[in-house]
Amino acid sequence: MARFDDSRPEMTAEEFRLLRDHVYAHCGILVHEDMKFVMERRLWPRLETLGVPDFSAYHRYLRYDANRHAELEAAVESLTTHETYFFREPSQLKAFREELLPVLEKRNARTKRLRLWSAGCSSGEEAYTLAMVLRDEPRFEGWDVEVYGSDISRRVLTMARRAEYGPSALRATSADLLERFFVPAGNTKVRVRDDVRAMVSFGHHNLLDEAGSQLVMKMDAVFCRNVMIYFDQSARRKVLRILRDRLVPGGYLLLGHSENLLNLGADFELVHLRGDLVYRRPELPGLVGGEVR
Amino acid sequence: MSHLPIFPAEEERYRALQELDPRAEGILDVLVTGLHDESWRVRHAAATGLQRLTPPEHVASRLVSVLGERGETGARNAAAEALAGLGPAALAPLVKLLGHLDPDQRKFAADILGQLGLGAAELPLVQALEDPDLNVRVAVAEALGRVGGEHAARALSRLLGDAEPLLRLSALEGLALLRRPPPLPVVVALLDDARLRRSAFRVLGLIPQVAATERLCQGLSSDARSIREAALAALGTQASLVEPSRRSELEAVILAALRRLPDAVTRLEQALEAEDVAVRSGALLAVAAMGEASLAVRVAEVAREDRLLRDVLGTLGRLGSEGGRLLLAAMADLSAPARAAAAEALVDLVDPGSVTPLCALLEWAEDDLRGVVVRALGRTRAPEAASPLVDLLRDPVTAGAATRALGVLAGSCRAAVLSALEDAVARRATPVAVTALGRVGGAPALPSLRALARDVDPRWRAAAVEVAGEVDGRVGRELARVALADEASPVRAAGARAMGRLGGTEAGALLRSALQDEDASVRRAAVEAVGESGAVDRVPELERLVRHPDGALAVAAVRALSRLGRVEAKVLREASGHPDEEVVKAVLSAGAVSREGVTLAVSLLEHPHWDVRAAAARVLGDSGGPECLEPARRVLETEPDALARQALADAVGRLSRR
Question: Can you count the helices (H) and strands (E) in chain A?
Answer without folding.
Answer: 12, 12
